[in-house]
Amino acid sequence: MIIIRVAGGLGNQMQQYAMYRKLKSLGKDVKLDLSWFDADSQKGLAAPRKCELKYFKDLPMDVCSNDERGKFVNRSFVTKTLNKLIPSTSRIFEESKMYHPEIFDLEDKYLEGFFLCNKYYADIMPQLQKDFVFPLHSDPKKQEINEALMDEMMNKNGGESACIHLRRGDYVTQQVNVDLFGNIATDAYYDAAVEYVLSKSPDAHFYIFSNDPEYAEEKYPDRARFTIVTGNEGTDSLLDMQLMSRCKYNICANSTFSFWGARLNARPDKIMIRTYKMRNNQDVVEDLMHDYWQGWVLIDENGIIR
């Protein structure tokens, strides 16, 4: 059996689920561990999380029992010491780089990681697009607004629409996140991405998604060209991802949330744009990035298309 720990925010949870579905497609016996979301595990966390995978409609998943989990993670002092000295003896696999192709050959392991790399599950994306079924908005009137927006994105100006995700919040207010994620999705990045879209679709209309709408309004004041999208908050916030998936162009922040807005985009004419790197503590190799993110447009913090 393989067990995958589910942890983090919605985008990371979806990546762990995608790895689960990928291993399932290879005939593996795989289950998910949701214990990270238990009350005891969430105590003391700076940003407590819920298992938001459960917000999707009838998402198929096999969840491990405490006993099944314990067989992997409950280790004696002697076993932990042996695992440190001889890592191959450990039944816990910890992600340590962008892409681990050896994961597909593992048996009898407990997997810990975020599995961001698109190469892991790009081949099963059509299945994942069917798996992730969005719920209706809790407010019927706002559901109607969302449906009208999706229709507009798909059809207005011949469907020449683009979404821009501006991730602010803890990315600019918490120093640890500024150090890790700051100065990647820069003004130069967004300006270059918008210019790229307009070079291909001069009449494109842009839909802005942000956890800081006031900042978005200041940055993109032209209402004839830019629409600031609001109304999906709290447990309804994942519906922003659904809206993103209806645009022809996806301009992502260095955020797994907007990556999934692009991934779930089933439009045959879609163009996905992302930051060249995700984190500041990550070494990036251009050839590998193009291999790991095939079909994506990569733009760095200086606004250069790589």
TrEMBL record:
InterPro entries: Glyco_trans_11. Keywords: Glycosyltransferase, Transferase. This is Glycosyl transferase family 11. Coiled coil: none annotated. GO terms for biological process: carbohydrate metabolic process. The keyword Transferase applies. GO terms for cellular component: membrane. The keyword Manganese does not apply. One of its GO terms (molecular function) is galactoside 2-alpha-L-fucosyltransferase activity.
